Amino acid sequence: MSDALLDLQGLSKSFGALRVTDTVSLTLRSGEIHALIGPNGAGKSTLIQQVAGALAPDAGRILFEGRDVTGLGTAQRAQAGLGRTFQISALAMENSVLQNVMLGAVGASRSVWRFVRPVMRDAGLRVEAEAALHRVGLGDVAAMRVAELSHGQRRLLEVAVALTLKPKAFLMDEPMAGLGSEGSARMTAFLDGLRAEAPILLVEHDMDAVFALADRISVLVSGRVIATGTPAQIRRNAEVQTAYLGEEVAP
Amino acid sequence: MMRRETILNLLVFLALPAVALAALALDEPFTITLATRAAILALAAVGLNLALGLGGLVSLGHAVFFGLGGYAMGILASHAQSYAPLDLGLFVIDGTKSMPVIWLVAISVSALAALLIGLLALRTTGVYFIMITLAFGQMFYYFTISWPAYGGEDGLSIYVRNSFPGLNTLDPVQFFGLVFALLALVLWIMGRIERSAFGLALGTARQNATRVETVGLSPFKLRLVAFVISGAVTGLAGALFADLNRFVSPTMFSWQMSGEFIVFIVLGGIGRLFGPVVGACLFVLLEHLLSGVSEFWLIYLGAILLFVVLFARGGVIGALVGQGGRHE
Description:
- The complex is a heterodimer.
- Chain A is built from nine helices and ten strands.
- Chain A is an alpha/beta fold.
- Chain A folds into two domains: 1-81 and 167-251, P-loop containing nucleotide triphosphate hydrolases (Rossmann fold), CATH 3.40.50; 90-166, no CATH class.
- In chain A, helix 3 packs across helix 4 (123-136).
- In chain A, 45% of the residues are buried.
- Chain B is mainly alpha-helical.
- Chain B has helices at residues 4-25, 29-54, 63-82, 99-121, 126-146, 172-195, 197-207, 209-214, 219-245, 255-268, 275-293, 297-311, 315-321; strands spanning 86-87, 92-93, 156-157, 247-248.
């Protein structure tokens, strides 16, 4: 498909005898939020890791903007424009909030091989970093250390760091996890606006958020995609109902 | 208003020349030599501190670079004092007694060694990294012991201290001044590196390597560059140490030497710019005072170190200025 920004073709991955990813094919198109749902142990995290470059698939290809990136590592895929956020925050806990976003700006501007100039006084990078913090509403806590932030604030900081990279596609692993209803609602509103900038491949357990946000949903069960479609199609799909959703999404 | 740590750093830093000048006034050249020794050991540990403190790379092999710096000086100076040219296979060079040339060679050789060792060792982490760096140290140690050309186990004596343009390096206080100026310069450079874009990325790689990769940077490359700079500085210190003693021996390569550098850093405060300076000064002072009391002075040093590790995790600086260091 020509408009597929990210194109997974027949990805498979086994750990010993256990097939955790089984010939998974799916696409992420410009402007959409494509949600990936499935019960615990369905292989969502393993799949995301393969897309991010942290795990190599046993078979299949990953195309990004039509280019085969299957052989690239995490850092190279980030350079190519894949912005990732983590289920469990991966932040520099001892550093300040601003330092964490500054690192994103440093990575995005490829200016890491500077040894003399104090990075925090780099006006250009600082503008980028502070803009990203303000967008997620963390402007007031810029000087705080990450260790002092609440769980929800750390989730937002993850997103802010990804924003500084100006990625072409986002890869988000459970951004709502542990946010509470108010936090979830704020994050949902934020991601809703973000899709116009870059499409999002979203792994999420919060079904309210998924059905409110997603343009398309893929359902992963035991490593296989059993259905892909619009939220309405997924709601009606009998196989999905029995395999996973049950009563939960029949309002 | 200055931070308490900045004030303490200045005090410690100025204590070195103060001691040297007081010793000059009281005509006690040995004390000047002690201050010089402290400054050189501090320089070696300041080098290690970039890898260990900021980068989180516990290298138990930094004696390799210290020793290479020492032997760079020893070999070049011994050929100069014997007037025998140095045959490197591809080309033949003359020895030299010029400190700037020797320093350049010491820095280049140790940087190259750090690059090669880093390429291998940095593929591992944690205890494996410690073991590989230790193994490299032991390789160099046993090689110099069994290599007869430059004194083998007995080491190599250089009769006259090498020269620096415009200075009489045989005068203890002038040599101290030279060493102190180098220490000040390197501390300034390290302070800049710590606050640079590279420093931010290196410090983040210590805390969370995944974070660094996710913004498109390679933790391996960051650590390798840090390891090379770190090794080069420790190599420079090695050349100065050899010049101070006018003697080089395989003990400069010994793992105890590497261990001492780590002790300086832990004693002063891990990840603090002046931590190694405080640690090295304290170590030399205790070595001097306690070895007069008992030949088993290392037992007391061990007890002090134990106390610091158990009760003052921020090292001496942490204990004196309280919280607020980069990582306690």
